[in-house]
């Protein structure tokens, strides 16, 4: 298993392996890399073989997911913050457990195709003794951040990759897992990009470690509360794979930036729903801030003292959907906790449950959600009784729910139950007069998070940013600001610092760009779109869901690149 060293005992090496290692030494490999090569050779791993992993059985994977559900959930949450960076660089990120089994991944471009080709799926392993020297496998062995480039990989199959990894350690330095970021290697990759990806991997592992530690501190003072077994003294429930961590302080309507008519109208309607109990359906494109509205409605209403349980339905593995939402009793499935576990509806008792991307739920689960919404009672898997739940239900969708109903992908009766109080959040392109306030807010927040001086945008950079279409809306803008705050050394952001889709080639007065590896972004984006459509056999709904964009945005990008759906 990864995390345990291969034997360093003096075992005679195959002459072919000896020659291979000698070539590595001649290329300057040393330290951890050379030690790893020697371990792999002593274990009889042939560097000329593919050495790709085979996935573990589904039941074993499910058990591992349950054991490390906390770090998986945090990984999914935090990679959402950096998703723009990963997409721009055509990179993949994954989190694995302490034995090296991949639990969750997100990927873009040809790196994703490479991952698929070498069987680095969820449930596959990156253990050193299976695939040879690699960054996450080595990070698990050394318990230190690691960078492995191209032919530093022991197995030649992995020479096309550049990867950085950082271990996740708890407060006692026990190994919980590892975060990896991998990019397809090419000779143009700059030291700056290597440094940024390395810093990003460190940041991800640090944030996950800090959240795990904080959660354990809070949990140590837990109290009993109805239906759930135990809970935090703070009403936030214990989190799981798809739940979205709550903000440190309540989110009120004052946090919603903008005074233009579209956003002002949405805020006015949302405020009118605060003191009602009707179910709310929030619709809007990806990245418009639907969760922010849901949290504000909860925080300003009579349920503010109760829990706000946010669930990203699209992030729940299908096989875990029912146990996540409705809970389970002892013996429900292999790996189930002996004491059972409450579902999200129970955890939201006397509060609000927010089901984001509700349209991604399979029909079978929709039927059970309908019953809970109608009866205000939930039945755990393998349970023998119904548990009353007093919850307000707020749902959200980034697609057109009426269309989903028309094509039979979403139950009509559930749609009517959820859409009692409709709310539509406007896209960023309809809020142009609010753009400066939004940009300054995100720059200020980013500086506060990183303890750094607040950056400002030059007028030239501002004009470029304001003129861009922002298909990913406010979230894309926030991701862009986050990246700029990481990569710009001075306190002022100029046009040449901006990503290439915002400043087209030659559009910044001929100045060089900090995004050296994405100067061919358009061709990279086209390749990524073709690969995604191929992967989902032309299914635009599934492709858009995977990309995290609306179908209209996907069609617009396909048309731009001349791709026929």
Structure at a glance:
This protein is an alpha/beta fold. It is built from 22 helices and 16 strands.
3D structure, described in words:
With 565 residues, the protein is an alpha/beta fold. The chain folds into four domains: 160 residues, Beta-Lactamase; 174 residues, Rossmann fold; 91 residues, Helicase, Ruva Protein, domain 3; 39 residues, Arc Repressor Mutant, subunit A. The protein is built from 22 helices and 16 strands. A hairpin with a 6-residue loop joins strand 11 and strand 12. The N terminus is likely disordered.
Number of helices: 22
Over the alpha carbons, how many angstroms does the gyration radius reach?
Answer: 24 Å
- Assign a percent range to the helix content: 40-55%
CATH C-level category of the largest domain: Alpha Beta
How is the secondary structure organized here?
Layout: H1 15-26, H2 31-42, H3 58-67, H4 69-81, H5 83-89, E1 91-97, E2 102-107, H6 109-117, H7 128-131, H8 135-142, E3 146-149, E4 161-169, E5 175-184, H9 191-219, H10 261-273, E6 280-283, H11 290-299, E7 308-312, H12 321-326, E8 327-328, E9 341-342, H13 344-347, E10 351-356, H14 363-375, E11 377-379, E12 386-388, E13 391-397, H15 401-406, H16 412-418, E14 421-424, H17 435-450, E15 456-457, H18 459-467, H19 473-487, E16 492-493, H20 521-535, H21 540-547, H22 551-560
Parallel strand pairs: 6-13, 6-14, 7-10, 10-13, 15-16
Antiparallel strand pairs: 1-2, 1-5, 3-4, 4-5, 8-9, 11-12
């Amino acid at each position: 298993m990864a995390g345990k060293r291969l034997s360093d005992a003096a075992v005679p090496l195959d002459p072919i392996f000896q020659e291979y290692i000698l070539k590595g030494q001649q290329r300057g490999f040393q330290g951890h890399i050379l030690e790893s090569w020697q371990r792999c050779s002593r274990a009889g791993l042939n560097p000329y073989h593919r050495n790709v992993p085979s996935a573990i059985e589904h039941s074993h994977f499910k058990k591992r997911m349950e054991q490390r559900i906390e770090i998986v959930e945090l990984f999914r949450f935090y990679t959402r913050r950096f998703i723009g960076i990963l997409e721009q660089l055509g990179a993949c990120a994954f989190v694995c457990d302490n034995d090296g089994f991949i639990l969750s991944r997100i990927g873009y471009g040809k790196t994703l195709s490479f991952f698929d080709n070498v069987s680095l799926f969820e449930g596959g392993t990156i253990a050193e003794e299976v695939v040879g020297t690699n960054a996450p496998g080595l990070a698990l062995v050394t318990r230190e951040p690691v960078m492995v480039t191209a032919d530093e990989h022991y197995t030649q199959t992995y020479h096309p990759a550049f990867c950085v990894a950082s271990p996740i350690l708890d407060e006692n330095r026990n190994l919980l897992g590892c975060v990896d970021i991998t990019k397809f290697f090419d000779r143009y990759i700059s030291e700056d990009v290597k440094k940024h990806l390395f810093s990003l991997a460190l940041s991800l592992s640090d944030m996950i470690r800090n959240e795990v530690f904080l959660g354990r501190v809070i949990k140590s003072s837990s109290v009993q509360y109805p239906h759930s077994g135990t809970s935090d003294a703070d009403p936030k429930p214990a989190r799981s794979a798809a739940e979205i961590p709550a903000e440190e302080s309540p989110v009120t309507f004052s946090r919603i930036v903008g005074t233009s008519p579209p956003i002002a109208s949405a805020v006015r309607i949302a405020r009118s729903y605060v003191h009602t109990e009707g179910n709310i359906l929030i619709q809007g494109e990806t990245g418009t801030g639907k969760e922010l509205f849901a949290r504000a409605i909860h925080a300003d209403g009579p349920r503010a003292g109760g829990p706000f349980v946010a669930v990203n339905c699209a992030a729940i593995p299908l096989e875990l959907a029912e146990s996540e939402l409705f809970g389970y009793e002892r013996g429900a499935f292999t790996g189930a906790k002996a004491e059972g576990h409450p579902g999200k509806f129970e955890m939201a008792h006397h509060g609000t449950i927010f089901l984001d991307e509700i349209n991604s739920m399979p029909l079978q689960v929709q039927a059970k959600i309908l019953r809970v919404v109608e009866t205000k009672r939930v039945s755990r898997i393998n349970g023998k009784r119904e548990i009353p739940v007093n919850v307000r239900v707020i749902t959200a969708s980034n697609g057109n729910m009426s269309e989903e109903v028309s094509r039979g992908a979403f139950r009509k009766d559930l749609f009517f139950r959820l859409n009692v109080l409709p709310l539509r959040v406007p896209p960023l392109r309809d809020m142009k007069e609010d753009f400066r306030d939004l940009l300054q807010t995100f720059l200020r927040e980013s500086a506060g998070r990183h303890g750094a001086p607040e950056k400002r945008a030059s007028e030239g950079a501002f004009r470029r940013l304001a003129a861009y279409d922002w298909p990913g809306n406010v979230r894309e803008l926030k991701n862009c600001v986050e990246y700029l705050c990481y990569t710009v050394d001075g306190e002022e952001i100029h046009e040449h610092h901006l990503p290439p889709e915002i400043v087209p080639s030659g559009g910044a007065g001929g100045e060089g760009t900090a995004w050296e590896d994405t100067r061919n972004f358009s061709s990279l984006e086209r390749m990524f779109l073709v690969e995604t459509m191929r992967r989902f056999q032309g299914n635009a709904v599934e492709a858009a869901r995977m990309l995290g964009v609306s179908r209209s945005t996907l069609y617009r990008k396909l048309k731009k690149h001349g791709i026929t759906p």
